[in-house]
Amino acid sequence: MTVLDPPRLLTRPVLVLAAGVAVNRMGAFVQIFLVVYLTAEGYSASRAGIALTAFGVGSVLGVLLGGAATDRFGARPAIIGSSLLSAVQVAAIPVTGPFPALLAVCASAGLVAQMYRPAALVTLSALVPPGRRVLATAVYRFGYNVGATLGPLLGVLLFGLAPALVFAVDAASSALFALVAYAWLPATPRASSTTREAPPERSARTDSGPSSGREPSTTRGPSPPHGTALTRGTAANRGGPGKRGLSFDGEAAVGRGGSGERGARTRRAGYRAVVGDPRFLGFAVALLLISVVEIQYTSVLPLEVRGRGLPLGLYGGLVAANGLIVIAAEIPVTRVVQHWNRGTAIPAGIALIAAGITGFALPGAAGLVAATLVWTAGEMVAAPSAAAYPTLVSDDATRGRYIALSAGAQGLGYALGPALGIALWARNSGAFWLACALLGLLAAVLARWTTVRAPSTPGAGMLDRRGGEQEHGAGA
After folding, report:
1. Where are the domains of the chain?
2. Are 82 and 119 in contact (CB under 8 A)?
3. pLDDT in tens, 214-225
4. Averaged over 351-378, what is the pLDDT?
5. What CA–CA distance (Å, rounded) separates 299 from 381?
6. Residue 212, exposed/middle/buried by CB under 10 A (0-12, 13-18, 19+)?
7. CA 55 to CA 32: how far, in whole Å?
8. Angle between the N-to-C axes of helices 364-393 and 116-127, in degrees from 0 to 180, rounded to the nearest 10
């Protein structure tokens, strides 16, 4: 068996999604070059910073809006709509004159640019069975990270040729992603009133046992083959009194209770249904806290390196090493981590991230290198499991919103972290590093509490066999 296990995981739609995200990220230059472009155009640094903040705020809101749009209209339309609107808005930035109008365009560009993220993960959850989602998420992240690593290099080249090319190519990459989604991604159904309505822990399922080598199936029928995207039921399953719909898991979803009124109420409740899940809310808070800590590598770390009299090239090398190691090693690492109890993988990865960021307080270049390795290891352990987790604990009617809330929490942490971190570091560097350690510890504890006993969707595969019933015992 190869590292990527092609027959079971790398179906064409999964590869198309990963490649599409890579292309999209490779052309996503706005956040990196917006301040440089606007100051070169004569705007003050403060106004350029305000414009970048508007883009960031729009991005956080866009993830939340994208989750609602995914649940309402389906994942594929959300990806296509987000990408096309992003192409239009980004292309408008260099031709927008008055500053208030520019702020509005930047905010709307950030909003529509991030709407695709929940839809992409919902699509991924439709393409693979639940027990394979952690590894599939690592493949998705591989495409994302390759694009994010190569993008800035391409952006520098384009900016040197003509600054406006940055926005033109960004818009073109978004339009290309929309075309890829339209041509090659399968249509995922909108969550209907006939999708799973009962809370996950009430869903009856059988467990094939850890030694069987098969994914567990629900008591309502066998699970589809690995890699099956969206399996339609028989004609009888698509109509009549017991009307069955299509679930994002690729299984026929059975309307519990006949009329599906509870499912309809869940959809109408919107984000209230997600916020009303205290354990998942705690998980989102854990992501917020660790994001505040992790983003310090972009804000405080370069100041720390310069403050010690070390070359800034060292900082660039540390960040580049992180990206290259993640690209090269995350999928092999995930092949191992996917079999861990999720109540272990996510908090352990979070703890390693916090230890690595806090480790940047160690003296000398060797200390910085060691801290980077620990931080990178934590990212590879936690990120795929944390990204897949919302798809494993949500039902069809709210899956997009669950994904959006977790992504929005991360985005908010990334937005707040730099300003908070720099302010505290400038006042008292020792207190800053201690705060990173304490926030990371709190995030790990929260992640442990919220994931170790969380209910799962039916047929959650290896994650349930090692993290379902066993989670309730002493061996958790």
Report:
1. 1-186, 265-476
2. yes
3. 333 333 333 333
4. 96
5. 23
6. exposed
7. 11
8. 70
